[in-house]
Amino acid sequence: MEKSEFTLLNKIQYPEDLRKLSVDELPQLCQELRKDIIEEVAVNPGHLASSLGVAEITVALHYVYNTPEDRIVWDVGHQAYGHKILTGRREQFCTNRKLGGIKPFPSPTESEYDTFACGHASNSVSAALGMAVAAKLEGNNRHVVAVIGDGAMSGGLAFEGLNNVSSSPNDLLIILNDNNMSIDRSVGGMKQYLLNLSTNETYNALRFKASRWLHGKGMLNDDRKNGIIRLTNAIKSAISHQQNIFEGMNIRYFGPFDGHNVKELVRILKQMKDMKGPKLLHLHTQKGHGYAPAEKDVTTWHAPGKFDPETGERIVDKDPNKPQKYQDVFGHTLLELARQNPKIVGVTPAMPSGCSMNIMMKEMPERTFDVGIAEGHAVTFSGGMAKDGLLPFCNIYSAFAQRAFDNIIHDVALLKLNVVFCFDRAGLVGEDGATHHGAFDLAALRPIPNLIISSPMDEHELRRLMYTAQLPDKGPFVIRYPRGGGVLQDWRCPFEEIPIGKGRKLHDGDDIAILSIGPMGNNVTEAIAKLAQETSAPSIAHYDMRFLKPIDEDILEEVGQKFSRIITVENGAKKGGLGSAVLEWMNDHGYQPKVVRLGLPDSFVEHGTVAELQHIVGIDAEGIIKAVNTL
């Protein structure tokens, strides 16, 4: 595809170039920026609709503020493609999410314009407040802006940050990018509140002018400002017949305004720039704005894969022999089980289509719950339902489940409640990189009492584990599985109970034992098959452990007695995971084999395809063969 020529965008390398444009040129620049994002993402897949929706906000912020000295803190980094292009990375944007290319989400290790990590939602207000307080304590006139949107305001950390904003001396500006979306449509009380939040137009205009007049008189820069803010809040409540939650926190509220009117945004930001005290600017935007296919189906076009930018036709792999994604096997199996077991309910924090719980949601909406971007709440909510007799299947992406660690311990494991945790995207996830790899769940959860921790080697095992987990009185049950497709063309199979804590021997051998957990067992199978073609290859036994906790001690006893060389393979942090568990057991029972642990290193793995990353960390078939040959 031949790329478009851009009159204005071609002149811009950094924001200082942007600031040389006239305000009247900015609408054209936004159109060019949007088109550049579309053309790039069409051939190098990534997140599309979110960045299209904030093109005007991005341009206005870099036009008004002196970045990077002034701080822009993005929340949910998939909004920030336009930000990357305008901050010195346009030529490299074609490498976005590729191995060795620019990072999938903003990172201070990549650019001074990226002020904070933002792969996970809801941290912008807290991080930006820290920066605003630091600027104030250091006597620095630096401006700090947090841009929160895509449903991130539903996260508990955002509310904690707002609560502290109101009580800490700061001049923070919070921009609420209100597009009524996360990835699927936003849910919950805050979503409805923002939909209903209307500011009387006459009052809004008067208040904005009054704020500027009071600011010019210095009346918003001293101790009198809190009294004035309370007075204006009271007037606002009387006129609009509602109490604004932000003004109730003594955060001055402005809006809602049209987030796609870049000239008006520049005017508003310039007027608000030097106002003292915390402020919130509420902007209405449309996710996917400016590209008709994305406007019509924002969930699909959140991350559409490759597509034709002219026609909007997505380039979808329609290979009928391609295995189903694990997430779809989960979704269909959950519905099957829910039809049989009326106690089953589904819970997901804002990812019903991403985890395929939408399959059950379509048929049983009253038994499925999308709680918004609130992983901790999802876990405790599930615990509450389990306490009174329901059986929740709580599906959370592994990397996001990290934010619910205490809830898993305190609100489920401690009471041994029957909650089934399905951790999607476990292990290396590929192009989304370090913030999204499900690297830590095995090691983090293994020390927690009462948990059953399992991982299926294939789709049949996933179905069997899900069936087993919903049988009576199993207690908290973790099932982890990876992103993407499985290995079986026919994934349907009869439901069978798997004995808790029991693995299986897949291949007998005499020289080396390989113990794997989860889909890594398929890599081991491939490695053994390749080694079998070598005349001098050692005889290898392969055990699929299935469970990390309780671990199969009968297998470990057999391996400890028979083998002096052991390899463990896992798609998770090797410190604290399966390899550590095997070493601990062998030591505790008097065995001293040589154990080589294959897993994720003690460092953050960057982005690339899953195959590329598995090769780099040595857990693909080639890495396993190398470990065998060097053992």
Topology:
Layout: H1 15-18, H2 26-43, H3 49-53, H4 55-64, E1 71-74, H5 81-89, H6 124-137, E2 144-149, H7 156-165, E3 173-178, H8 189-196, H9 201-216, H10 224-240, H11 245-248, E4 252-258, H12 262-272, E5 279-284, H13 292-296, H14 326-340, E6 344-348, H15 358-363, E7 368-370, H16 375-387, E8 391-397, H17 398-401, H18 405-413, E9 420-424, H19 441-445, E10 452-454, H20 459-469, E11 477-480, E12 504-507, E13 512-516, H21 520-531, E14 540-544, E15 547-549, H22 553-562, E16 565-573, H23 578-588, E17 594-600, H24 610-617, H25 621-630
Parallel strand pairs: 1-2, 2-3, 3-5, 4-5, 6-7, 6-8, 8-9, 9-11, 10-11, 13-14, 13-16, 16-17
Antiparallel strand pairs: 10-15, 12-14
Helix pairs in contact: 2-4, 4-12, 6-7, 14-20, 16-18, 21-25
Description:
The chain is 39% helix and 14% strand. The chain has 631 residues and is α/β, with parallel strands linked by helices. The strands form three sheets. A seven-stranded mixed β-sheet has the order 7-6-8-9-11-10-15, sandwiched between helices. Strands 1-2-3-5-4 form a five-stranded parallel β-sheet, with helices on both faces. Helix 2 packs across helix 4, helix 4 (55-64) crosses helix 12 (262-272) and helix 6 packs parallel to helix 7.
